[in-house]
Design a protein that fits this description.
mainly alpha, 62 residues
Amino acid sequence: MTPTVSGALVGAILAVSILVFGFWGFLLIAVFMAVGAILGRIVSGKLDVRGLADALTGRRTS
């Protein structure tokens, strides 16, 4: 699946969710999709959790 198709699918899901569930349902679905994407990146090894934690706390690496 290309990034364009993935983006279109995510946009369609969010558009349907705002029509069906309203703003707060849309916001909840968007948060869950973001959490799922982050967890997927961690599991696949494409996101370094320690580096992310260091960046969020303001620590610098050499």
